[in-house]
């Protein structure tokens, strides 16, 4: 039978237990040890776990050390352990064990020997090949393997079609032994992934015989070809991806970093796995070996023990398949998972505009006109079907009279003609196997460049064909859990496939992986992940810990009214109430008198922030506030964020004589500053939440989702619960921007009396929930805040 494994024994001292987990410092916090124990058991017991550890409590290290300790212990188990063979004689079991141990040891030793030879070597350049192929046969459709016999093509044409994507397949290392189990670690952004790798480098798992790890990233972060990089800068990511594929396949002058032999890619793999590398180091390695880091990293995955990757590569099944990322038997850890449900829904909800339909229709017509005589059988059949569908979609958009929401089946029926007779299952398979969107857009770009020599290629054709492809793949599913949202008319029409149940998309991941762990600093309400994403509720476990900051370093206050006794409740209509906005300005101004350094104020939306600040400019409130704190606002454009934050930080650190008490930053919940930005120490001695950021209830998409939840649940309040949860998850993320370490301190002001409701307070993060005070009178909140900062000032003297 199988031999279970346990986390490091709890009997040791914190320092001993920390060492057993590979923790890089003398002793972990108690909550980190509890986190690692719970994580180890969740992985061992094949659970779906939701783990919450507030920012500043060392969550990343806890994830890495807990998961890799399990990985190491598991490897030892299957080197010396037993097999599941209850019904077999002992001698048969013993023979099988010995055979398995020998195979595992041989595989491990072979890899270890290769990597040991690589480590001391100087990273040298690999030789490379250039190949060119400039004729138009490159755009012909590759014969789908599932149809084969009914397509009669010449050997010459077949050879031209087979060239497409050959490089990707050749360098996928499908014959290499697959290391299992792996630990996949995913996060949202490139910087978050870099931070995870940085934490891994601190641990013993990166030294001596390092864990074999590889980091995956998009071409934008890994491409080293100057031509492709220039196209990315001029025309965007989609054009970059197209050109990369063309140059990798040799359809254009072959990319110099794509050697046709296996050896350079094997060399990249061995160098990459011989030590823990982040993306920047992999790019440097690729330059040194003259090998593409993007494909080199993909080539390294099969032998890796740890794979660090962005969300989109794991969450979307087609992307996983194209990257050849198998989750079977592996551990999946998704960090910063607070927005996972919305991310999954967005990944499976493509939109298609009337303009894109028209562009794709023109491109498809040009493609058929050029290649129709060379295509037969299924390829010709499906191309003409695609053309019929595009014509039907265009006619449908022209006939739209009002916004509507329909089921996918109803939508296909309403397209008219022969659309409802199309075999979408066969069409879906053909779209995936032939990658026709890439071929049509590539040919369209070639025509455009011939007609416009010397100019940078336009990308609308690329985007159009890929948008059509994504929409048709979603439509092919015709799920009862999907809707088509129709907005606009004629040339302004937009068709959006809306996935209503994220479990549809997430279920394969949960079913195939050994264990799935969702982690974040603010995961409340945690039960929502179980209820929405998990079908087998028995697999669910959760872990939540308090904060490492002392109790008296946090003051959380519900402010029910302003200085003149006007109730604070910022519903939809409240932003038109100038009397209420004036009362709010008086409250904020009074708080700025007593709160030192930096204050961050979050509004529910850009519209509410704009309306409020306009009113405060009219009534002189902004001028009064500016006499105490220099004023900053969230910028309209992302590229301006760093500039604003730098100026805000400087104003906090060195206040001007005209604004002697620091600075105040107005921001939006869910905006550019509410996630991924750390307002530690003086940058946020106070976080104010103005109102409650409920999603727009008038949104058709939200209305459909709420109705779907209402129809599927036995609870009458299910849709209301979801609506409130969406609001509070956004609140919790904004609150989590402050308090970044054990010695930090801050005040949290919740300016809306609804925060005092028990059901709302229950959704606040665990570490702040028990510390919330309610102040029915404004004056009492002033007294509490003044006393808090007076105490902090006295303690630092």
Automatic annotation (TrEMBL):
Q: Per the record's keyword annotation, is Glycosyltransferase included, yes or no?
A: no
Q: Name one GO molecular function term.
A: metal ion binding
Domain Helicase ATP-binding intervals: 18-387
SUPFAM superfamilies (alphabetical): P-loop containing nucleoside triphosphate hydrolases
Reported EC number(s) for this entry are: 5.6.2.3
Q: Where in the cell is it found?
A: Nucleus
What's an example Gene Ontology biological process for this entry?
A: establishment of sister chromatid cohesion
Tell me which stretches of the chain form a coiled coil: none
Catalytic activities: ATP + H2O = ADP + phosphate + H(+)
Q: Which cofactor does it need?
A: [4Fe-4S] cluster
Q: Which CDD domains match?
A: SF2_C_XPD (cd18788)
Entries under PROSITE patterns matching the protein: HELICASE_ATP_BIND_2
Keywords, A to Z?
A: ATP-binding, Cell cycle, Helicase, Hydrolase, Iron, Iron-sulfur, Isomerase, Metal-binding, Nucleotide-binding, Nucleus
Q: Choose one Gene Ontology CC annotation of this protein and give it.
A: nucleus
Q: Where is this region: Disordered?
A: 118-137
Q: Where is the major localization of this protein? A: nucleus
PANTHER family per record: ATP-DEPENDENT DNA HELICASE DDX11-RELATED, DNA REPAIR DEAD HELICASE RAD3/XP-D SUBFAMILY MEMBER
| Record family assignment | Belongs to the DEAD box helicase family. DEAH subfamily. DDX11/CHL1 sub-subfamily.
What is the documented function of this protein? Answer: ATP-dependent DNA helicase important for chromosome transmission and normal cell cycle progression in G(2)/M. May have a role in changing DNA topology to allow the loading of proteins involved in maintaining sister chromatid cohesion in the vicinity of the centromeres. Has a specific role in chromosome segregation during meiosis II.
Q: Which NCBIfam families did the record assign?
A: rad3 (TIGR00604)
The name on file for this protein is ATP-dependent DNA helicase CHL1
- The species is Malassezia cuniculi
